[in-house]
Amino acid sequence: MSQARQDEASEHEHDSGCCHEHGCRHEHDGHHDSGSGNHDSGNGHHEHGGGHHGHGGGGAAAQERAGCHHGHGGCGHDSSGCCCGHDHSPEGVRSVTISLAVSGLCTGAALAGHATDWLPEGALASVAIAAMLSGGWFLLPKAGKALRRLRPDINLLVVFAAAGAAFIGEWVEASAVVFLFGVAEWLEGWADRRARRATAALLELAPKTALVKREGRFVEAPVEEVAVGEIVAARSGMGIPLDGEVVSGESAVNQAPITGESTPVDKKPGATVFAGTINGEGSLEIKVTKASGDTTLARIIRLVAEAQAQRAPTQRFVDVFARYYTPLVALAALLVFVLPLLMGGAWEVWLYRACVILIIACPCALVIATPVGIVAGLTALARRGVLVKGGAHLEIIGRLKGLAVDKTGTITEGRPAVRSVERAGAASDEEVLRVAAAIDDHSAHPLARAVVACARERGVAFPRAGGYQNRAGRGAEGVVDGCACFVGNHRFAHELGVCSEDLERRLAAIEGQGLSVVVVGRRPHDDCRGGVLGLVAIGDALRPRARQAVADLHAAGVKQIVMLSGDNQRTVDFIARQAGIDEARGGLLPDDKVAAVKALRERHGIVAMVGDGVNDAPAMATASVGIAMGAAGADAAIETADIALMEDELGRIAETIRLGRRTMSIIYFNITFALGMKAMFLVMTLLGHASLWLAILADTGTTLLVVANALRLLAVPKAQKPASPPSSRLLP
User: Three-class SS string for 217-282?
Assistant: First the structure.
């Protein structure tokens, strides 16, 4: 376990809380992990390996976790609930709202009575007491608990401040302290619910029922009862209920809720569709491939909820700071009261000032600054089709200076096709393809799939090679028609000793065009010298927006972009020039990619590796943050990477960097603003220019401003808002 995760686990064991409760409680058992492994955010070290999930994915469980509990130091929460003493269920929120409304009316009446002298002193005190009881009934149990543990928190400070004000006859100010504190609590709860509701709303994207084909006709059934392999229908304008494969019909599907793509994607038989996406004008019949709790949408919701439950390094620092800040300021308040008395000061004056300092001791705005900002940032990125596995990764991506990218599927489209076949020792092109396809039929590598597809398109019949052996970063071997054969790259041909000057010239000519070359031949063994049968030239088109995406990354602050590939150097140089990439390194084995990422980290500190989430896992684990592209259809990529781009769009990385940087800027501003307000009011109090009214109003106002500032992250620019689903009036 990394030190960062140990710190995080230890902090969850503390009984401290904060002046706010984030959603409902979340029980941490020490085995909870987001699936991406652990990170030490200070040095970027990852401990990849999946993590242990103590719960299933999606469904009600994900919804329950969408409002997890964050404990914070120094503010009065323990693991049992919030400092308000209420839950955040609709009923709990409603009861607190009604109590605060009553308290507000009583406080207003007390204020009016005090200002106009129409209430006698006894009646004024009664109204103020009613205001304190209705607005602060939840404080006393928490304050008593803090007192018994000798750990002062905001509940105890507010009770002491209100009691002190009442003791010297300041009934109106005492009631105002309690009422405005309750309002601040309510605002913080509302802010957290508002940020998390945006994530929970994802659950509403997928229909709760599906039209399932049973006994020859379509019947409506809850999605939880639909089994994998059954056929469901998606009529025009309907939401697609479950992940599956189109078996009949054609339509354009709005995938913005999952991938963030701004335009609908055409779907035909064989295409993959996702739960929560919106069918267009056509009608589709879909074979279900995942149960309701395992859909891509359910996994996204679960992982976002888990990411929100994790504390960012900034949040952990603030929590520790608040844990010591509150008791120290409480001690300062005691000294402010006691020391002047020893020097003959008026006890009423200094007791009042001590009560003001107790209010200043509340770190509400300070502690809420980070979690609300992190949750809002994570949710905003999830809306854009970017899944970030926690606040630590959001902080890191905002400071990114170096980026390593895989070539195939990242800079290029990842759909290579055979451009030409050249004979060497073979009798025909068909013989070259036959041997290559026999071996490549075992592999899922894009180049291998391209060779097999070409052989089938040309009608070349091929056996399935025996004794298949993958050679990482080089190629593969197998036995075809009783002969040991190989397919591989330029490096593999050199290692087998089958290269010649003529072959080198032919390879150089093909590689100079930016094409990948597969060398096909017989492997030297025993008395057989082996030899090359032919060459297969394979091309993969550059992504249409790759050059613009690279320019956007540089504009976002990335100083160096390096392309890492197992392909030959000439090919990767050609692709790099087309895309505007700073440096290209070809002929790399998996270990070489790891070394390249380490070198990049030594130069720039914070670096990311973009890959497919599986094949590039070692290099991604070495980077400060691992990013997987096109993860919507790849479960392993979602689980392995720290950041998963649901859409195959490199430009999303620049957008993620900008939003990560904006999130941290807002958080740092909020922290500085909150601390500045505390310092200013402390000085004003000592000089006798602050009142309880002013202190509590400033605390509430600061909290409100901090919350409003953080929630700005949820705003989606108009250009990026996904198209709205068709109106219900258009549904059949």
Answer: EEEEEEHHHCCCCCEEEECCCCECCCCEEEEECCEEEECHHHHCCCCCEEECCCCEECCCCEECCC
Q: Is 612 helix (H, G, I), strand (E, B) or coil?
A: coil
Instruction: Exactly one of 406, 567, 573, 642 is catalytic; name it.
Output: 406
Two tokens at 584? 């290209």
| Phi, psi values for residue 426, rounded to 5° | -85, 160
The answer to whether the beta carbons of residues 167 and 351 sit under 8 Å apart is: yes
**Measuring CA to CA, which residue among 667, 674, 704, 637 is closest to residue 190?**
704
First-to-last CA distance in the chain? 54
What is the pLDDT averaged over residues 457-463?
A: 94
Question: 528, 468, 471, 527: which is closest to 495 by C-alpha?
Answer: 471
629: left (phi over 0), alpha (psi -120 to 50) or beta: beta
CA-CA distance, 221 to 42, in Å (whole number)?
Answer: 50
* Pairing outcome for strands 466-471 and 475-480: antiparallel
Q: Return d(Cα 290, Cα 160) in angstroms, integer.
A: 57
Paired tokens of 236: 């025009």
DSSP state of 311: P
DSSP codes of every residue in 141-166? HHHHHHHHHT---HHHHHHHHHHHHH
Active site residue 429: no
Assign 34 to helix, strand or coil.
Answer: coil
Identify which of 55-59, 214-218, 318-322, 383-387 has the greatest average pLDDT: 214-218
Q: 106, exposed or middle or buried, with CB in 10 Å at 0-12, 13-18, 19+?
A: buried
Could you give the residue ranges of the DSSP H alpha helices within 565-691?
569-579, 590-604, 617-622, 635-640, 651-686
pTM of the entire predicted model: 0.57
The mean pLDDT value of the chain amounts to 75
The pLDDT assigned to 12 comes to 37
Residues 6+ apart with CB under 8 A from 581: 405, 411, 550, 561, 562, 563, 575
- CB atoms closer than 10 angstroms to residue 264: 18
According to DSSP, residue 464 is labeled: P
pLDDT in tens, 370-387: 777 887 888 888 878 888
Separation of alpha carbons 205 and 706, rounded Å: 30
CB atoms within 10 A of CB 534: 22
Q: In terms of Cα–Cα distance, which of 629, 595, 594, 598 is closest to 613?
A: 629
Cβ neighbors of 389 (< 8 A, separation 6 or more) are 34, 35, 36, 303, 306, 307, 310, 641, 642, 643, 644
Tokens matching residue 520: 């096909």
